[in-house]
Write a structure and sequence with these properties.
There is one protein chain. 75% of the residues lie in helices and 0% in strands. By secondary structure, it is mainly α. The chain has one domain (2-44). The two termini are 20 Å apart. The model has no long low-confidence stretch (mean pLDDT 74).
């Protein structure tokens, strides 16, 4: 599971870095925050620190 989280974070991080348009960045950030929020609600507070 840890490897999956690291891979997901790396992909999202580089996606935001490489995105040239603000709309894309905002969409990615919103998707990431929603993903973390859903993950936190399912697993408890363990992953809450991943939220940006």
């Amino acid at each position: 599971m840890k490897t999956f989280f690291k891979a997901t974070l790396i992909v999202l991080f580089f996606s935001v870095l490489l995105a040239n348009r603000m709309e894309i960045q905002n969409y990615l950030i919103d998707s990431y925050q929603s993903y973390v929020a859903d993950l936190s609600s399912h697993t408890g507070s363990k992953v809450s620190y991943l939220g940006v």
